[in-house]
């Protein structure tokens, strides 16, 4: 059994593909090969194996293997051409918005730089999603936000999961904006938050994020106050960014924290 990391130092085992069938087998091979590519086991310097070799390794037909390769090609990890073989693409060609690719990147090793880039993306989107939700969301759109907030409150008492309830809140705000482009980002944000939230909570020394801070966002959305909703979300993200940047500084032995520029 091969192993990878969950992004914050915990080992995660990868099951062999034997015993699976149909599409499950295809997805399992895709997962195994995707992790091998992202972790550098296969790269431009260590070429991707030929089809016959992989079919033998996984004990599968060419059609099953080709489907897995096709999925990895769609994610930007591979380039396959008839009579030219299959090649690993450089990292800049990978689709970082694909939840699988992002998960593999976050799980391969602790990367403060990747978390910083992800948080920068969140800072460019989530405050505006909150502001838009405050302008346009009705009772039906607000209900999932309040449900997630209720779950976070229950998690404080040990009656719910602090991670999934926090993620549910941020995803609910994105969806409440009514922006279809924001909604397309929800799976990617869900995936990355599973590492990011655990990391920032660990750095703060708390079990879960502040319910009160999240309630400020929810209250502003309900009150149709876009400026306050945007600011409340921005404050949370600024704190997350500062925690990650300071941790990166400390990991490099630097004492002075990097100041995150204030939002304009």
UniProtKB/TrEMBL annotation:
Signal peptide from the UniProt entry: none
Listed Pfam families: FCD, GntR
UniProt keywords, alphabetically: DNA-binding, Transcription, Transcription regulation
InterPro entries listed in its UniProt record: GntR_C (IPR011711), TF_FadR/GntR_C (IPR008920), Tscrpt_reg_HTH_GntR (IPR000524), WH-like_DNA-bd_sf (IPR036388), WH_DNA-bd_sf (IPR036390)
Keyword Disulfide bond recorded: no
GO molecular function, one term: DNA-binding transcription factor activity
Residues covered by the HTH gntR-type domain: 23-91
Ion transport in keyword set: no
Superkingdom of the source species: Bacteria
Entry protein name: DNA-binding FadR family transcriptional regulator
Source organism: Rhizomicrobium palustre
